[in-house]
Amino acid sequence: MQPEPSHPAVSLMTWYVQAGVDETIGEHAVDRYALQDSPGAAAQSSTDPAPPPSIPLRRDPAPPPSRPTVRPAMPPAAPSPATERAVSDAIHAVEDAASIDDIRAALEAFEGCALKRTATNLVVERGSAQARIVLVGEAPGAEEDRRGLPFVGPSGQLLDRMLQSVGLDERHVLITNTVFWRPPGNRPPSQAETAACQPFLRRLLELVDPEVVVALGGPASQTLLGRTDGVTKLRGRWFPLQSLGLSRPAQATVTFHPAYLLRSPAQKRLAWRDILAIRRKLTELDAEQADR
After folding, report:
1. Which of 52, 61, 73, 219 lies 20 to 30 Å from 107, alpha-carbon distance?
2. Are 165 and 123 in contact (CB under 8 A)?
3. How do residues 274-287 score in pLDDT, each as one tens digit?
């Protein structure tokens, strides 16, 4: 008879698997805290039978130490023909888009991203089409998938409070993601899925033409800036973000994804510094514009 899912043994085995315990190495459990700390002594349970005496083996001269094998770094995998075709289709689908509604219509007709077949709703953007700041996350979550809007769950509510604390709201910002459909089970989107959506994201940025672009989390910074460094190394720095349809390079920076801040509240103080730096950047841009 199969044990019930709530049986203590099933819960224990599930915990073992999640902790990385995937094999057994002996018939009996060993209380290693009770073993004596004798150098060179083999750890053995008192309940195990004593091993038979071993026959001494002939000692051959020790082989010379082998040199460590140095493996060359693997080049990044080339995109598959299917991915290249999806990216090409996306470019053609969105190149003539003249508004966010055109981008939405192009995405609704686009079949090059497999996420579309498992998601409930298309999730494009939230905020102002004339925003000075565009914030880009990774992918919609469950609440976003239900409502068809980005960042409306707990992490989005935290993001809204952070922006409001420096006088910014949906009149000043536009919020979007690197992919426009929720991945099943909230898994990270694949490189192929992100690549298929990137032409739509680029065109969205070109149409809004923001002064500041904020990547929320490492995946968004990699998509927007091509940077593989972690957020802690990238935050606090500014990078020019250029695209053919932008009137001038946007000033791009990186900060923590609000979902990460919910899991790691101690990092909120650094995120607060990032929000203040973004507000200061707008003030600096205003001053530069006034001097012209």
Report:
1. 219
2. no
3. 999 999 999 999 99
Question: How much of the chain is in helix, strand and coil states, percent to nearest 5?
Answer: 40, 10, 50
| Residue 167, φ and ψ in degrees, nearest 5 | 80, 25
List b or e across 126-136, with b for residues whose CB sees 16 or more CB atoms inside 10 angstroms: bbbeebbbbbb
- The residue among 268, 269, 90, 77 whose CA lies nearest residue 191 is 77
CB proximity list for 226: less than 8 A, separation 6 or greater? none
Place of tokens 């969105």: 94
Q: How far, in Å, CA of 139 to CA of 269, rounded?
A: 24
- Give the pLDDT confidence of 120-176 residue by residue, as tens digits: 999 999 999 999 999 999 999 999 999 999 999 999 999 999 999 999 999 999 999
Structure tokens at 220: 């968004």
Estimate the crossing angle of helix 100-109 against helix 191-208, to 10 degrees: 160
What is the model's pLDDT at position 11?
67
Q: Where are the beta strands (DSSP E) in the chain?
A: 126-127, 133-137, 173-177, 212-216, 239-241, 250-255
